[in-house]
């Protein structure tokens, strides 16, 4: 039977390989780091982690089959795709006025930290592939971890979230460090790339939703 640290490191390594794959959460982390600095990564991960904990509890309650339901995936993909497209377009519009980006950079210290946490949660929940991963691979890992009881489940969740924390903290630190020594042009490039990426992902999610709807 696997021990606590064995489960933790197994979950950490598997989660870290997944965190490295570009997605909406990465794009939002880069966007928030450009205006909030290195603290953006941990704040986004808090929101992402809350979603991870929520879906873990849901799996324990036995709704893994629901997460694999094509209708549920279609709804998540359509709503999530629309949300990402709107967010991406708003970021692209901001690149037309560099002064707005600089002002945001000055004002973020006075703002509450709820926005990046909320973005971390919403971009996670808007991804139908995230539900698919948890309904299949995540559920399998959870069952394997449960051999140690709730201690094993805690090891699994903490290891999984820890991998996200390490990666997105590093990303936000590097982005903030690079932008602090650059001019406004790099803010526009960063927002433009991330905004464009979110729009493309949103379109792909919408297409995925239509494909699923066609199979119902």
Quick overview of this protein structure:
The protein is mainly α. It is 84% helix and 0% strand.
Structure write-up:
The chain is mainly alpha-helical and 216 residues long. It has one domain (4-215). 84% of the residues lie in helices and 0% in strands. The chain is built from ten helices and no strands. It has helices at 4-19, 24-36, 40-60, 64-67, 70-94, 98-107, 114-125, 128-145, 150-180, 184-215. Helix 3 packs across helix 7. The protein is flat and about 55 Å long. It starts with a helix and ends with a helix.
What about the largest sheet? none
Compute the number of structural domains: 1
End-to-end gap: 41 Å
Q: What is the share of helical residues?
A: over 70%
Got a strand count? Answer: 0
Unreliable segments of 5+ consecutive residues: 103-108
What share of residues are in beta strands?
Answer: under 5%
Structural class: mainly alpha
Arithmetic mean pLDDT: 81
Order of helices and strands: HHHHHHHHHH
- Shape annotation: flat
Compute the number of helices: 10
Report Rg. Answer: 18 Å
